[in-house]
Design a protein that fits this description.
14 helices, Starch-binding associating with outer membrane, two-stranded antiparallel ribbon, single chain, mainly alpha, signal, SusD-like_N, two-stranded antiparallel sheet, 350 residues, 46% helix
Length: 350
């Protein structure tokens, strides 16, 4: 990003052209670091382009990285275009809304409940740009009303990608029984977003959020990076944490109504609301960008709040094969060989 900024400063293009490009770069850096810290924990925070400075940086505390993420997003919001229609009517580049969507999530992860609610609400007020897609079957189309930021997938018969994340091939893994059992009766998402394959009499459910495959290349689908449904559930959680139970419940019910489910009522405790949000996010965002995994790691356990919700669930599934240190990936040995100042995550020997 500093290299880009330096190049643009010598450009003859007007500031109205340069500033949004720098904003896009800051957004991309923020998004990359968000996934890095949630996957690996502490990571080097690279803010320079000089390899003499950056080649052997130690890992920065996650809190420091989050502060930089927040700074990048706030600065991006100030200069990015508000309207995706300035990009030819497609939501495939960063806008103010995209940066706000990530920022709302960052505030939530940082337990800044008030700003999480405020930022999500700012997006949800932009109904002329984004709103819930009434039909779940249309959520993942390129022209979805719900998309805030989308990626155009690669599509080539010579390239394999898992269509749970990129709509270019049939999904190669089965949804577990716990997920399929978690769908309530009549939930339209079960019919719109999953498909059952019959293999010699055995039924195997797969993700079908994206239906474009090698044999069906005509579907115009873009990968949904940020969408409106998440903002409702971010706001619901932020409101629940601030004891605003009625409005939190209403945010959850907006998602449930779209799925043809009855409203939830009498959610009069924070614990009941968080449990309802966990259920709704599990169904709404399965096979999307690691939502559930990141949520389970940051939520305290229901039975034992001294451990994470991930510990509670995975220890039940995996027994002694699960260790709390498994919540982070190992630092790749190739990276540690290149940079001797990179320590390894606990639980890994190399």
């Amino acid at each position: 990003m500093p290299s880009l900024k330096g190049s643009l400063e010598t450009s003859t293009q007007p500031e109205t052209y340069i500033a949004p490009l720098i904003g896009e770069a800051k957004f991309i850096r923020a998004m990359c670091y968000f996934y890095l810290v949630n996957s690996f924990g502490d990571v080097p925070l690279v803010l320079e382009t000089n390899p003499a400075i950056t080649a052997e940086l130690p890992r920065a505390d996650t809190e420091v990285v989050y502060t930089q993420i927040k700074t990048d997003l706030l600065e991006a919001i100030a200069v990015l275009p508000e309207d995706f229609r300035s990009y030819g009517g497609e939501k495939i580049r960063a806008t103010t809304g995209a940066a706000q969507a990530l920022l709302a999530r960052v505030y939530l992860y940082m337990k800044d409940w008030e700003n999480a609610e405020i930022t999500a609400s700012e997006i949800l007020r932009k109904t002329d740009l984004y709103h819930l897609e009434p039909d779940p079957g249309k959520v993942f189309l390129a022209n979805s009303q719900e998309g805030i930021l989308q990626f155009v997938p690669a599509f080539s018969s010579s390239i394999w990608m898992a269509s749970a994340f990129y709509p270019s091939a049939a999904p190669n893994f089965v949804l577990n029984d716990g997920l399929t059992a978690a769908f309530e009766e009549g939930d339209y998402r079960r019919f719109a977003w999953t498909i059952d394959y019959n293999t010699q009499g055995d039924i195997y459910p797969h993700s079908a959020k994206y239906k474009r495959t090698f044999s069906n290349p005509s579907a115009i689908e873009y990968n949904q990076v940020f969408r409106v449904a998440e903002q409702y559930l971010i706001r619901a959680e932020a409101r629940a944490q601030q004891n605003n139970f009625d409005e939190a419940t209403e945010d959850i019910n907006k998602i449930r109504r779209r799925a043809n489910l009855d409203d939830l009522r009498n959610l009069n405790t924070k614990e009941a609301l968080i449990a309802a949000i966990e259920q709704e996010k599990r169904i709404e965002f399965f096979c999307e960008w690691g939502h559930r995994w990141f949520d389970l790691k940051r939520w305290p356990g229901r039975i034992d709040p001294s451990v994470s919700r991930a510990d509670e669930i995975l220890s039940e599934y995996k027994g002694d094969n699960w260790q709390t240190t498994d919540q982070l990936f190992p630092i790749p040995q190739a990276s540690r060989t290149t940079n001797p100042n990179l320590s390894q995550n606990p639980g890994y020997t190399n």
